[in-house]
Amino acid sequence: MEFDTLDRRPGIAVFDPIENARFELYTDDPVAPEPTATDEFYFPVDAAVAFETTAVEIPNYLSVVVRTQDGEVRVDATTFDDRSLPADDYLLELQSTPMKLYVAVRGELELNHDETSVTIRFDGSRRPRVGTRSFHERPTGTITVTDDVEDAMKAVSLLGSALKTTSCERSFPTLRGHPPLVERGESFDVPDGVERPETGVELVMPPKREYVYPAASLAYYLGAAVVPGDEPRLVADGVERSLNGPDGYETTVNRVLRQSFFLDCLTRTEGYYDVDLYEREQVEPLVDLDFADLYGRPLAAQLDAYLSVPFETLEPYVLDWHLTTDVVPTAENLPALPYFADELSLVRTPRRTDVASVEPTPETFDDFTRARTAAAVADGEFTRSTSDEWNWDDDEMFQVQAADTVEHAWVGSGYPLGANKVTLESLRRKVDHTPPDDSALTVHVVCNDSAMADENVVGEFYGLRDLITFDVSIHERTTADELATLFETSADFLHYIGHVDDDGFLCADGYLDARSLDDVNVDAFLLNACRSYRQGEMLVEKGSRGGVVTLAEVINSSATNVGRALARLLSCGFSLRTALSLAKDEVLVSVEYVTIGDGGLTLCQSESGVPTMFQIRREEDCYLLEHHTFVASNYGIGSMVSSILEESPTRYLVPGSRPRFELSAEEVDDALDLKLHPLKMNGRLYWSDDFSLTDG
User: Fold this and answer.
1) Rg (alpha carbons) of the chain, rounded to whole number
2) Which of 203, 396, 552, 565 is the most buried (most CB within 10 A)?
3) How confident is the model at residue 534 (pLDDT cuts 50, 70, 90)?
4) If you average pLDDT over residues 112-119, what whole number do you get?
5) In sequence order, what are the residues at sequence separation of 6 or more whose Cβ sits closer than 8 angstroms to the Cβ of residue 584?
6) Would you give the DSSP letter of residue 355?
């Protein structure tokens, strides 16, 4: 973690180089921050500074929890009311920041609110200490397994060793460490320090990979032992529950994860974070659960009580789960499980379906495509496999089973339509990611066809953030050597506009084939060109973490709309997978676009901490405005947020859709002026900085 002073106004900047996250705090006068001890904060911090000032201003109207230094909550300041607090030793916890931030200060306090910020005023000049902790987590070690399925069961049993607590507070993302990694070898081996917590929970199942893999996230979250048996069942402190529900094993396992996690989020409000939680207010009258009593009980006892509630009772309120991952159940794909357990992904094991194809763009569209010709996908380019039900050919394109989540990933061979094709190497790079050299995000926009120049405007979209510094460069009609240099030089993102075919990227002097590159040092990319998937796959193989590619020809106007939408969504902190999911709604035919590699990658952090989209609907005498929040690398599932639209301390779980607010046109415009967010109305995507209901 790094601290620096600001040039444009008094204050300090806090920078997390691992997560490309930056935040600013403002002061009345210039300050000189000095390093100070980190062990004097109630919560753990990675680094801290102290400085003299009379006030600290927090931008973006973020909520503040005021505690004493022993952790007691004095104020949950999520309203617009000003507060005065008597002299004490205070710890202020800032909410929805891109890293954990605390301000420790002794004395009297005043909390003053305006439309865009919260200011903490002291009784004269004081020396506050600012402490910060990165959200980044790394695995604690690597488990080695043979290809024996019982080794896989033992490895999945150890995923829960990374939990920082077995209390319901593990539903907070910062209290769930990254599970140990798994690699294949000659014998089973567990590194020192990797031990399963004693939770009293077992998952019993037949020793088959199609049973073991879907249980990975549940075993991790419950700290459960995975043991062989005839019938799949959950055993919690001696009480057994079948995992063969009416909708099948995988659906039942995933429902148990969703239900236990959700009710943990409600129970934890009896502990350190005694907040008014919207979801608890909705559910508590419907269930016979004593949350105060449950809070102090062992995990197994809590789980038994949770699962006594019919899932159908909770279903309208359970979190909008963020990710489904299809993992082809082979020994080669076992190492992917810790990464997706870390995200608490719902896991499925897919079976073969009919091979699909992407037809060329219909000639009736009055537009040109980004292929050099309008030729159809070549015959035989994708082949039908004759292998068993678990395998697909490397070049095979197929339709995957739809997922009821915003994001959808695939681990296995072939090219899935509508899902993020993940490679093991891209997942490894996710945890091995090297911090950048400075705080600026480097973005290259390459346009190699002047007829597509309308998309060049994306260079402006990457630089719209106040608290993030972008170094954006525009490159037109590059040569093959120039484009190769861009790929091989360290950068955060490359947005390519132009043509791609079997020979590679079309450049001013010929082609660049990604196979000719020595290595790729661009973290992520968008290849907005026809059939760019093979070149994108090679970029990931050569070193990139992930990107967005196309599986077929794309209409130029549609590609321009997708490119513009992706640029703004990525610069607002949405992940590759979520950004593409939202951007594809802009085009008539969206199946062509997929993510490849690490689709959970974020280019930068959201200005408000949690990526948010508004949904607006016209009613007879008002507008209904609804929040949709999404997970990001620094705000995982189980985080909490407050609303800028209500003067209330109510918190909401992430991800999810908050209740609709009935507003006038003027009130909608006022809400949209507070922060930059995407919004949807009548099925179209807009942006809060250029949308108004009152300006005509």
Assistant:
1) 26
2) 203
3) very high
4) 82
5) 562, 590, 593
6) B
E strands, 17-149, are 21-27, 34-35, 47-50, 53-59, 64-68, 73-77, 83-94, 100-113, 117-126, 129-133, 142-145
Q: How far apart are the C-alpha atoms of 527 and 594, rounded to whole Å? A: 11
User: Which whole-number Å values give the CA distances from 579 to 374, 497, 612, in the listed order?
Assistant: 28, 18, 11
First-residue to last-residue Cα distance in the chain: 46
Closest CA relative to residue 209, chosen from 324, 345, 333? 333
Tell me the mean pLDDT in the region 620-631.
Answer: 90
168-to-43, 221, 272, 418 alpha-carbon distances in Å:
18, 10, 11, 35
Beta bridge partners of 506: 511
**Residue written as token pair 């300090």:** 12
Identify the three-state secondary structure at position 112: strand
Q: Measure the CA–CA gap between 69 and 480, rounded to whole angstroms.
A: 59
Contact of 66 with 118, CB cutoff 8 Å: no
The pLDDT, as a whole number, for residue 610 is 87
Give me 291's structure tokens: 């949350």
Round to whole Å and give the CA distance between 521 and 237: 50
Query: CA distances (Å), 253 to each of 159, 171, 204, 234, in order?
Result: 16, 18, 12, 9
| Helix (H), strand (E) at residue 152 | helix 149-157
* Alpha carbons 177 and 338: distance in angstroms, whole number: 11
- 385 token code pair: 């496999």
Residue labelled with tokens 């997970």: 631
| pTM, two decimal places | 0.83
Which tokens is 417 given? Answer: 């339509």
Whole-Å CA distances, 358 to 367, 368, 371, 376, 417: 18, 17, 14, 9, 9
Tokens of 499: 């043509």
In the DSSP assignment, the letter for residue 361 is P
275: pLDDT strictly greater than 90:
no
pLDDT bucket at 466, cuts 50 / 70 / 90: low
Residue carrying structure tokens 């209740």:
659
What angle do the packed helices 556-571 and 576-583 form, to 10 degrees?
140
Cα distance between residue 352 and residue 338, in whole Å:
24
Q: Give per-residue pLDDT as tens, 594-625.
A: 999 999 998 887 777 789 999 999 988 899 99
pLDDT digits 0-9 by tens, 203-261 = 999 999 999 999 999 999 999 999 999 999 999 988 999 999 899 999 999 999 999 99
Which of 345, 302, 276 lies closest to 165 in space, CA to CA?
Answer: 302
Residues 395 and 551: beta-carbon distance below 8 Å = no
